[in-house]
Amino acid sequence: MSRSRSRRCASEIAGYNGGGEFLWSNLPEERNRLWKARHEAYYAAVNQRPGAVGWTTDVCVPISRLAECIVETKEDLATSSVPSTILGHVGDGNFHVIFAIDPKRPEEMIEVEALNDRIVARALAMDGTCTGEHGIGLGKQQFLVDELGDAVEMMRLIKRAIDPKDLFNPGKIFQL
Known about the structure:
Layout: H1 3-16, H2 28-46, E1 53-60, H3 63-78, E2 84-87, E3 94-101, H4 106-125, H5 141-148, H6 151-162
Antiparallel strand pairs: 1-3, 2-3
Helix pairs in contact: 3-4
């Protein structure tokens, strides 16, 4: 299938399902404008709720499971008291959820963490990964173990071998 036909099909499918306009470009200035909009989406999502702080998560699933994962995630988010937005560069199966949390309501963080647990568990059950690009950091260390099991111990051994003093991102990805 040609690239233009693929784009047209994707656009038609999105439109049929309530999606907005598709924009593509090979011109550097237009691509830069599209990337700028993508990066500013975080601020747009958070600023829908004055005084909110943003909290993001992401997962990645096989393309064949992406629609199912997003639909089920939207169902979870619809029951939440915390405003949220889904966005992504879904061509690689990756999507993000941005929560707009009221910093004066600690119960919202508890709710968001529970939602994140469900989103990640869903992605793993669909043969996906716990993060598409945000990384493991501190918050997804247990999910990495859930996803990779015993392989995480091998990763720790390699980390110890090349960074015995734990100087490179100490405590990130997994605890040594």
